[in-house]
Amino acid sequence: MRFFLVFRWLFDLWGAPYHALVLLTQSVNLALLYALVRRLGGERTVAGAAAAMWCSNSVQAWPLAWVSAYNQVLISTCFLGASLLWARGSRGVWAPVLAAFGVLELAVVLPALLLLQRWRRGMAAMFGVAAAYAAAHSAVAPKQAEGIYAVSVDARIPVTFARYAYLAVWPEVGNETVGALVAAGVAVLLALRWRDTLVQYGVAWFIIAVSVYLVVPNHISAYYLVTPAVGVAIALAATLCAAPRWAAALLLAAWLPAQWAYSWHYTSEARRRSIAWEAIIFGTRDAARTLPQGA
Fold it and tell me: Which of 30, 56, 201, 274 has the largest count of CB atoms under 10 Å?
């Protein structure tokens, strides 16, 4: 909300600065991801591949093209920044942790993500802040019993998880047969490299980050996967960099074109809709200015 208030005051309805900030934030995210993987022991090739695979994932298309989903990009900044500072043992880790609670409810799982690295002084306090935030949020914004945002803890959780796992590696409008094969191939490769600590870290990151969305089975959305997809990128990068070249090439040959095609499709459609709405909004404003005073 503060983002829109400030930019509305500075730039009115000129959309370019809004999108420029989103792209700048995502560029920072890629640098943070690279630094985090290096800090966790990954080689330069693995760190570079993780950043490349994350930014190539089509789940990025929606928040990068739709400014209203900027919080999905910004929460990734908080998560990656906190994880990097935690890995370095910096006391400054509290800055991105506390900032995360002002960005998105997903922040409640951030202490658990940091725990993937190690337990350190201050961890109990972080879990306490997360619990207090969750309690306050539940009191202010009670759970919905009906509708697409209805919270349901039932047998649909495994099905919802499977759907999100699929969307994390394949576009929602891609060929489902090819998608199933790619998803199966990814699962096999990850299983073969399971002893790799980066693979374990990446998979655990995905599970923890996506967990909050599993209780909302009526609103499965690919853009919720922006932050969870960080874990997928880390695990896949560590796996593919160690896999036989033919296996890595085969998987990427199927995966990358589909991701890029959907991203191009969505961003083009978003641009078309933006132009149409821009014409309506500016047309209405200009028409209002030409009306006589008090009309």
Answer: 201
